[in-house]
Amino acid sequence: MADRGPKPETNLEIMATLDRMEAITGSATKLPLTRRAVINPKEIQDLVAHIRHALPTDISEALQIIRYRDTLISQAQAEASRLRADAEREALRLMSETQIVKDAHAMAESIAEDARQKGQATLAAAEGKASSRIGGADEYALEVLGRLEEELGSLLATARRGIESLRDGRVLEQTSQRD
């Protein structure tokens, strides 16, 4: 499983949605004598929902990479255990035969040590691969979550400005109605 990054069409969808959001804020009706504008919250909410719908695929892909890493580690540990058990069975078999016990014992020890070394090498290689993939997955997840944080922060700021603008507009209306 290769570290692929976000799908281009997902990025394009998100970028198009953000462009639409920017266009809405740019073309919003300006309030006189203020730097504020009126924005339709339903439009912004729909665009936020669209972005939320586009992002989970990237996040689920990062989680899938992490699950794959865990599978690799489990497989390496199972292989090491299997090699050790095979070596122990071979050692017992050799000792039970009618050959000279010392030779059988020495050969069994050699096989067991070789199996331990191969198991350790296999485990180390799998851990190295897993660590590399984890690093890639972590970097990717961090990148995706960082972009998400930035986008959500921008959306939140836009929403807050819209709310403040609407509140300021109501205060002005109430003040002018009292006068």
| Shape label | rod-shaped
How many helices? The count is 4
From the helix content, strand content and strand pairing, which structural class follows? mainly alpha
Order of helices and strands: HEEHHH
The span between the termini is 69 Å
The number of domains is: 1
Query: Which ranges are low-confidence, i.e. pLDDT below 50, for 5 or more consecutive residues?
Result: 1-6
Number of strands: 2
What is shown here, in short?
The protein contains 4 helices and 2 strands.
Walk me through the structure.
The protein has 179 residues and is mainly alpha-helical. The chain has one domain (8-178). The protein is 85% helix and 2% strand. Strand 1 (29-30) and strand 2 (37-38) form a beta hairpin. Helix 1 (8-26) runs antiparallel to helix 2 and helix 3 (56-96) runs antiparallel to helix 4 (101-178). The model is unreliable at 1-6 (pLDDT under 50).
